[in-house]
Every structure is written in C-alpha cells, then in structure tokens.
Amino acid sequence: PPRSTLFPYTTLFRSEFGPGLLGFYAVFDAATGKEIGGPRISSDLSPDGRWVAVREGDSTVRVIDVDTGNEISRLNQEDIVTAVTFSPDCRWVATASVDNTTRLFEAATGREISDLPSGATLVAFSPVGRLVATASAVLGSNHTAVRVFQVIAANERAPLKWTGHDGAFSPDARWFASGDGRLARVFDVSA
User: Fold this and answer.
1) Can you give the pTM of this predicted structure?
2) Confidence band for 63, pLDDT divided at 50, 70 and 90
3) What average pLDDT does this structure show over 118-134?
4) Which of 50, 98, 111, 177 has minimal Cβ neighbours within 10 Å of its Cβ?
C-alpha cells in the first residue's frame, strides 16, 4: 500500500508505492496537491529543507529547489545510483553506484569532490559531516565491509570487519552502528 511522509520545514509530502528498493514515489505540494515532477526512485531532503536530491533510476541525481522546482545541479555516476544523501551542513551530496564507487559532490554546483572505491546501498555522513560511511547489500559489489572515509581527504579509515548493509553514526561521530538484518554491531570510528 502507498505510504506518505511530510517533509519537515516544507509544504511537501512524498507518497511511496511499489516494492523495496524498486519502489517509486512522487513528491507533491501539500497546499495545492500538485505533483512536483514525475515518479522517482528515491530521494533525500537536505537537512535545512531547501533542496531535494532525486535519484531517477539511472546514473543521474538531480538537486532540486523545493520552493521553485528548479534544478540546482546535476550529479552523474558511471552506472545506476543506489543511494543518495546530503551532508548535515547541506554542502555535499554523496551518491553510491553499482559501478562500485561512492562519489561526493558540491550540492550547489554539482562539482565532484571525491571518488571513493566503495559501491553501496547506504551512504551516511557523520553528524558534523567530516566522515562518510558506506554499506552494501549489492551482490557482486567490492564492498565486503562497512567502510568509513574522511570526506575531504578521501582517506579510508580501517575497514570495519562487518558486512552490514545499514547503519548510522552516533551524535558525537565516535561510534558507527551497523546491522545486517539479523545482528547489529557498534564500532569505534574515532581513531
């Protein structure tokens, strides 16, 4: 059944339909009921509520202004994008792809900042935005562990000895918790 979510700080809501990762959604203006764009594969709303990063089922992510519907930037991977997320300060967007890379872009310009050797189905920034973690449930990916990178230097911290496909940082970014559908583990990523 369809599921709807109201985006915080906006008059937008998202209605989801379809199965799991292959599900689609549409974004509507809650005041008018007008659909903003057509059905999409997935998205992430910027923490300040100004922009939405839209993954359209191919190698492209569009950053769109939620007030005007105008495209701010276009982010390109080499293959199908599997995950997208904004950094906490809205400066960066991370995209992951089945081409076994995670790329970091400037949200406002679309300029690529880093190309990390890690395909993923989850990309998560630390609360301050200095670290980015990737995790994957993609078969055939080079991703055999949850991985944590420094955003600017793109240096990988030691790979976590874990094959989780979900996760999140603690508020102080010292810990990263990850689950695999059966178990969860917590790792110290402060070093």
Assistant:
1) 0.74
2) very high
3) 84
4) 111
Altogether, the residues listed in the chain come to a count of 191
How crowded is the C-beta side of 127, counted as CA atoms within 13 Å? 9
Burial 143-180 (b: 16+ CB within 10 A, else e): bebbbbbebeeeeebeebebebbbbbbeeebeebebeb
Task: Yes or no: say if 47 and 90 are a contact pair by the CB < 8 Å rule.
Answer: yes
Q: Angle CA(124)–CA(93)–CA(17) in degrees, nearest 5?
A: 75
Q: Give the tens place of pLDDT for each residue, 9-49.
A: 444 444 444 434 434 555 666 667 666 655 555 577 888 88
Identify the H or E element spanning 115. strand 112-116
Angle at the Cα of 7 from the Cα atoms of 40 and 23, rounded to 5 degrees? 30
- Hey, how many other C-beta atoms are within 10 angstroms of the C-beta on 33? 8
**Residue 84 burial class via C-beta count within 10 angstroms: exposed 0-12, middle 13-18, buried 19 and up:** buried
Q: Vertex 137, ends 127 and 7: CA angle to 5°?
A: 45
Copy the structure tokens of residue 4.
């709807």
- Residue 190: how many other CB atoms lie within 10 Å: 12
Distance CA 4, CA 125 (A): 25
Q: Residue 112 pairs with which residues in a beta bridge?
A: 105
